[in-house]
Amino acid sequence: MEAQNETDLAEFIILGFKSLQEVRLLLFTGFFIIYLFTMLWNAFIITMAIVNQKLRTPMYFFLGNLSFLDMCYTSTTIPQMLAHLLSERNTISYMGCVLQVYFFFSFVGTECLLLAVMAFDRYVAICNPLRYTLIIGKGICLQLATACWAGGFLNSVVHTTFAFQLPFCGDNHIDAFYCDISPLLKLSCGDTSFNQILLLSIGLFIAWTPLVCILLSYTYIFSTVLKIQSSAGRQKAFSTCSSHITVVLLYYGSALFTYSTTNNSHTSSQKGLSPVIYSVLTPLLNPIIYTLRNKDVKNAWKSLIRKM
After folding, report:
1. DSSP secondary-structure letter at 6?
2. In whole numbers, what is the pLDDT of the chain averaged over residues?
3. What is the radius of gyration, based on Cα positions, of the chain?
């Protein structure tokens, strides 16, 4: 048994959309278009934030970080998924799986923290407008963004290190379309109780604590906005928050749906499709939401077109 516990796996087999093989070319086309638009749309927002002087504010600095994060986020999973859709043998090397888990969890944790920082930025802008430039200066913006990225990568180091110290006893079939912690824990023949505790405890800090901070920020924001007497002032204040609120609802709503369906008894196709919303569609919709619901970005785009 001890020898079996120390089985060295050279690779994992990604089951992915095994029940949808007959439409894999259609899936490849759809996901390739989604990936292309995700990269282009997020790159567009980053370019606008750099080129246009009016968008060089803390809000768009954090939005640029979010766009870059979404580009990294999708690049962690989609390219290999596209390769698997065109291949008969859907495998990933052991080290490739380690790297995919590490970077995926890093970007997930960073996005949770970054969304909380963006909510804090809106809170200061609306509730303390006279002190906004003092509180949210360039140095503070850089420090907050650095803390988000560092926190996300540190969170991933812990999960990845302990997950891949577990013994694997021969079964190397991952029932997902990318390497994830939960499917990996199911493959281990060792005791995964400590890993489950880590997922719960650190997840509480890295995911749910930022959500609580976001809810508190918007509680104060709504309370302040409702005290504004003019309807035009209230509408303007709400419009600066609507895009961020929509992104938060999309991100946390899709995450809850993904992990609730993954943990319940669903078919393999349902388990495979639910993470698509979380890891593929969300990074695509984020820049669309900010573009369509943000007058500053649309004006910057019109200005760039006129210059060209």
Report:
1. T
2. 84
3. 21
